[in-house]
Amino acid sequence: MLAAQQISLQFGKRVLFDEVNIKFSGDNCYGVIGANGAGKSTFLKILSGQIDPNSGHISLEPGKRMAVLKQDHFEFDEVKVLDTVMMGHKVLWNIMTEKDALYAKPDFSDEDGIRASELEEKFAEMDGWNAESDAASLLSGLGIEEADHHKLLEELNGNQKVRVLLAQALFGNPDILILDEPTNDLDIQTVTWLEDFLLNFKNTTIVVSHDRHFLDTVCTHIVDIDFKKVKLFTGNYSFWYESSQLALRQRNAANKKAEDKKKELQEFIARFSANASKSKQATSRKKLLDKINVEDIEPSTRKYPAIIFNQERDAGDQILHITNMSKSVEGDMLFKELNLNVNKGDKIAIISRNSLATTALYEILNGEMQADQGEYTFGQTITTGYLPNENTEFFEKADLNLIDWLRQFSTEKDEVYIRGFLGKMLFSGEETFKKATVLSGGEKVRCMISRVMLGGGNVLMLDEPTNHLDLESITAFNNALIDFPGTVLFTSHDHHFTQTVANRIVELTPYGCIDKLMTFDEYIASDRVDEQRSELLSVNS
Fold first, then answer.
1. Domain assignment of residue 61, yes or no
2. Which of 307, 226, 349, 236 is nearest to 473 (CA)?
3. Most CB contacts within 10 A, which of 22, 66, 346, 418?
């Protein structure tokens, strides 16, 4: 068991946590949520001992081992990949290195022999003989090919390093596993592998993630950081969100009788419990939900941005036509022979195992890059809105406050009008006078969304729009695209976002492109898609 007792932390005058008490135990998975800046990552650092609170203490049950997903991608650059993973179990690794050092001594003594024997016994008790094969299995599951296992970590790219550090945290069956954004830079196949791993993991997991599908799949509890407090709720993210929204509606319904409210909440719990029985964690989650008291459900104090995309004009029937388009970079083919006719109202998820491919397509369609071959044509009635994955150039030279920054992109210069769009994205009062050059990653994306809303386009192109956003902004963005009457081309690693928005999937590969009129979940499960992908590969090999 891991417990936080009377934890308080403040930076200057800003109080982040005030007398927090919470316990983590059993084979439960706790999803830590909170708005940007609420202190999710800081809380994990306190739990793992990386940061000391101003008051209070963390207690870990004696004899238990904690593993943490490292955020420093350069710490192990001079270490072999396989060794980096095994170093995740410090006690086992220390035994291995001491044992090897003893055997390497040219003057190996009787005393060394006794010590080596002791180490060998501990090594066997800890299943050390299987350590290397277990580490290799984790690496393979996370998409690191066997040929890379004996390379130095510095020889791998950024995405591969993230996977190696994740394998390090998972290695050796830790009693407490702490993961901060573990799905970042993972493709859908690897995320699915991680979900299955955590579902079968019999110890305690504490995880921060903005991926709602991931939280829904693996979590038995939600830890909500809000207003300097930390509250624990039973159930996954969807249960927390829907129950808190129901409680909020009930609180605002002044005339509703208490017994009616209680009955509505009880029916909600029963309905959600029935749905939980169909999930991967069916038995444990259903039992947990069945034990919930109505009084445990409270309204959330979160603020959700008002993301609303209005078209200035309706699009005609001709939207976008792409003919035989290919693109390569430095000899590497990103995508080949893309033929795409976009229909009015399509909401197309553009996917690829290489994020450079999807970004290249958006940049081509927005005139920022040339295709190697092929052409594209937008219909005459089309106005586009583009949210790029990389937005640095929009802010690095803009020594303007937020009002003047957004005013650059508007034909209507009235301050009240501009403030309205900033207000929708939760920039209000003094915040609107903040300099655009000092914004956080999430604040920059919210400004860029204001810019897209301001443009009134009828075709939206969105490259990883959920990056840097908190769950509240992602949820609002998700709902806005579902309601948007126009056409959308988008790429997102957020499974729930893609599943609920897209009615068509286009996959870019170096061998050709796949275009299917179906949902994301149907696409993932489709044998025909797998066959078509294999056919493209065989034709080009």
1. no
2. 307
3. 418
Where does a domain end: 138, 156, 183? 183
Instruction: Give pLDDT tens digits for 221-270.
Output: 999 998 788 999 988 898 888 888 888 888 888 677 878 877 877 887 77
DSSP 318-344: --EEEEEEEEEETTEEEEEEEEEEEPT
Do 272 and 359 fall into the same domain? no
Rounded Cα distance, 106 and 134, in Å: 31
Tell me what the mean pLDDT of segment 529-535 comes to. 90
- The residues pairing with 329 across neighbouring beta strands, listed in sequence order, are 332
Does the structure show a pLDDT above 60 at 279? no
Longest dimension (CA), the chain: 88
CA–CA separation, 64 and 137 (whole Å): 24
Q: Are residues 351 and 475 in the same domain?
A: yes
What is the domain range of residue 96? Answer: 66-183
Number of independent structural domains in the chain: 3
Confidence (pLDDT) at 67: 96
Burial, 201: exposed, middle or buried (Cβ in 10 Å; 0-12, 13-18, 19+)? Answer: middle
Residue 258 lies in a domain: yes
The answer to whether 345 and 487 are in contact (CB under 8 A) is: yes
| In a domain? residue 268 | yes
Q: What is the pTM of this model?
A: 0.85
Which amino acid, residue 18?
A: D
Q: Which two tokens stand for residue 150?
A: 């004996």
What is the per-residue pLDDT for 69? 95
What is the per-residue pLDDT for 541?
66
What's the distance, CA 337 to chain centroid? 31
Single residue among 119, 149, 183 that ends a domain in this structure = 183
Question: What is the rounded end-to-end Cα distance, in angstroms, of the chain?
Answer: 53
The token pair at 134 is 């277990």
Asked whether the predicted pLDDT for residue 276 surpasses 70, the reply is no
The 10s digit of each residue's pLDDT in 146-157 is 999 999 999 998
Buried residues in 509-538 as b, exposed as e (16+ CB within 10 A)? bbbbbbeeebbbeebbeeeebeebeeebee
Q: State yes or no: pLDDT of 280 exceeds 70.
A: no
Determine phi and psi for 91, rounding to 5 degrees. -65, -50
3-state secondary structure of 275: helix
Residue 243: closest CA among 175, 174, 168, 296 = 296
**Residue 470 backbone dihedrals phi, psi, to 5 degrees:** -80, 170
DSSP symbols for 348-370 = EEEE-SSHHHHHHHHHHHTTSS-
207, 43 Cβ separation under 8 angstroms: no
